Structures are given as structure tokens and as C-alpha cells.
Amino acid sequence: MSYLGVGISPGNVALYHGGKMKLIDRRLRLTELLLRCSVTALAFLGLILIVTDTQVKQIFTIEKRAKYTNMKSLVLVIAHQQVHNLRERDLFLVVTNGIAAVYSLLQSVRCVMGSMKGDVLLNKSLAWAIFSGDQAMAYMSVAAIAAASESGVIGIRGEEELQWMKVCNMFGKFCNRGAGGVASAMLASVAMVLVSCISAFSLFRLYGATTQRPPNLAVVK
Amino acid sequence: MSYLGVGISPGNVALYHGGKMKLIDRRLRLTELLLRCSVTALAFLGLILIVTDTQVKQIFTIEKRAKYTNMKSLVLVIAHQQVHNLRERDLFLVVTNGIAAVYSLLQSVRCVMGSMKGDVLLNKSLAWAIFSGDQAMAYMSVAAIAAASESGVIGIRGEEELQWMKVCNMFGKFCNRGAGGVASAMLASVAMVLVSCISAFSLFRLYGATTQRPPNLAVVK
């Protein structure tokens, strides 16, 4: 009895291949589970770091006193606007991280349940659903990182010509937390991309052309 | 003689399956070629539209006369800075579009040559190379769009609180060309994502588990 549950005549290469595939399957399932758990943890961490970025509240208080009367207060308004923009961009990242964390948690549960049952994913509809979900999540994460990392560059470099301040010099805590959040989300998105590759493998192998090892060789002999 | 080039005993289901796979393969190859050509054309169009956005030059001339003496000239400086930022972001999109156009052109040539030879992709190393390249291009395109579309929103909405102008009201031609370029790049990235799915299919089917239709059924009989 082979791993595939099909009786195979002795001497057939498929037996060896079945054992090899079984090993690959196990490792892949474990890798997938670890990656999905990592996405959940990292995305949640990123979300917490960005949401609890309290130092920003100080700037909002300062801004309320600032008026368009002199250059200095204008700079404060610009600083507020800049931080507000950073927060707005981070909002997209926060929402994406939240969705990624919940999605990956549910998928992790599915992985564990699948492992406990011990069966390989054979249902094409389910495989398509998982593949589509993973692809969407992976591209969404990468897009959120791309949008957020730009604001990080402005925060560090500033815009001298416009007297846009280097927010990171003025508000170190805000910047460090933000950077931590973005770094965490970045790692989560890398893990998500790898997961999407695994789910693509799980789906498309079901369409195996079997051209690599002609299945009916024994019959032809 | 089946499509796979392997003699198959009569009555085996693999014959029917081989014919079906042949049809799917042909359609898939055609779809892939069309998508890759679309990416080349759309990415190139996007690049041209953004690079030839000449109206910006006028703003640079105005900006040179502007100084920090009054509010009005400051607004002009901000306008310049804003447009400069838009251009900077678009630069990433331009570079990405250029790479995508050249990459897809080369891949299209490979597709045509493969079709002329008439063989299916069986080389795992080549399939891995194509898969990796396509994945990288797809994620890069989506990231570039995410970064650029944000600048588009600022251009249309403006930032009233900071007196950031609605660039689209002031410089219609600049905005229309830019929007055209981003839209073109967006379509190219959608096509690129679909291409990456096809190359994932082409790669991972080579690892087909063949659990759906036990290959040695005839032997067992």
C-alpha cells in the first residue's frame, strides 16, 4: 500500500516517489503552518506598535495653538500635517495588518485541523479558495508596505526646501515605534508572499501533467 | 501515440486526459503570450505618458522667481515641491514600467519560440527561473502602483489645511497625462499578476501528485 492509497506493483518507481512526496508534503505542511503563525504574530505586533503610537497626541495639542500668523507656527502646522499624513498612510497599513492577522489565524487553524486529520489537500475548490485568498493578502500587504515606507523616508530625511522637519529628530519615540511597526509588517508581508507560493504549489500540483515520469511505462513494457 | 509522447494502452483514461490537457495547454500558452504582450505595450505606454509630461517645466520656471517673502510665493514653492514629489514618486513607477516592458518583451519572444517548437515547458530549472522573475515583477508593479496612486489622490483632492493646491485644477494637462500613465501601469500590473499565476501553474504542475487519477490503475487491474 503506497502513500497514495493505491496498490502498486513491485519494482515500480512510483513507490519511491510516493515516499519522497510524503516527506515533502509533511515539511511543506509544517512550513506553511509556521509561516501562517508568523504572519499572525508579526501583523498583530505591527498593528499594536502603530496604534499605540501615543507621542503623536502631543503634536495635536501644539497644533491647536498654532495659527497662520508667523513662520514658526506655520512650520508647526506643517509638522502636524506631515505627522497626520504619516498616520493616514499608516492607517492603511493598520487595516491591512488587522485583516492579515485575522486571516492568517483562521488559516493556521485550518492547517492544524488538516494536519490532525492527516489528509493532503485534494479538493480543488478549497485549494482555489485558499490560493485566491493568499494571493490577495500577499499583494495587499506589499502595497501597504510600499505606501507606508515612503512616509518613513520623509520622516527620516525631511524636506529641507519646504522646512519639512525631520520628524525622527523631533519625535524619536514616535519614529522608533512607527519604524518597528513597519518592519514588523514588512516581515509579515514577506512571510505572506512565501505562503502564497506554497498555496500555489498545493493548488497547481493537482493539475499535474505527469510528463516527468510517464505513468503507464509499466503497461507499455 | 498520446500527446505526452508515451504509448498508452487502449481503454486508459489518460488518453482522454491527454487530449484535454493538450487543449488547456494551447489556450494557456496563447493567454500567456497575449498577457505578456499586453504588459509590454501598457508598461511602455505608461512610461511614455509620464516621461513626456512637459507641463511641469512651466512650474519649475515660476518656482525660480518665488522666494520666502510672502505667503503667495510660499504657496508657489509648496506647489513646486508637491509636483516635485509627484514626479519623484512617478520616477519609481517609470523605472518599474521600463523594467516590466523589457522583461515582458523578452518573455514574449521566449513564448513565441516555445510555441514554434511546439513543446511544453518541462525543464524545472527554467520553470523556476520564469516563476521567480514573474513573481518579482508582479509584486514590484503592485508596489509601484501603490506608491504612485497616493500622489494621484493628493493631486486631485489637495490639502486645504496646508493650502496644498489641487494640482489637477491648476495643471490639467499634467494631471491627465499622469492619470493616463498610472492607469496604463495599473492595467499592466493586473496583467503581470495574471501572468505570474500562469507561470506558477506551469511550474507546480511539474510536481503533480497524480492523486486525482491514480496512474497505475491499469497495472492493478
Task: Provide structural commentary.
Two copies of one chain form a homodimer. The first copy, chain A, has 221 residues and is mainly α. The first copy, chain A, has one domain (39-206). Chain A is built from seven helices and no strands. Chain A has helices at 13-51, 56-65, 71-117, 124-157, 167-170, 172-204, 217-220. The first copy, chain A, is elongated and about 65 Å long. The two termini of chain A are 22 Å apart. Residues 1-15, 64-71 and 211-221 of chain A have low confidence and may be disordered. Chains A and B meet through helix 3, helix 4, helix 6 and helix 7 of A and helix 3, helix 4, helix 6 and helix 7 of B.
Question: Layout of helices and strands, plus pairs?
Answer:
The structure is a homodimer of 221-residue chains.
Chain A: H1 13-51, H2 56-65, H3 71-117, H4 124-157, H5 167-170, H6 172-204, H7 217-220
Subcellular location (chains A, B): Cell membrane
Keywords (chains A, B): Cell membrane, Membrane, Transmembrane, Transmembrane helix
Transmembrane segments (chains A, B): 33-52, 91-116, 136-158, 179-204
Q: Note the total helix count of chain A.
A: 7
Largest interface: A-B, 49 and 49 residues
Counting copies of identical and different chains, the oligomeric state is homodimer
Q: Sum up the overall morphology of chain A in one term.
A: elongated
Distance between the termini of chain A: 22 Å
Structural class of chain A: mainly alpha
* Tally of distinct domains of chain A: 1
Mean pLDDT of chain A: 73
Main sheet record of chain A? none
What is the percent of helical residues of chain A? Answer: over 70%
Secondary-structure element string of chain A:
HHHHHHH
User: What's the β-strand tally of chain A?
Assistant: 0
**Percentage of residues in DSSP E strands of chain A:** under 5%
Low-confidence stretches of chain A: 1-15, 64-71, 211-221
Radius of gyration of chain A, taken over Cα atoms and rounded to an integer in Å: 25 Å
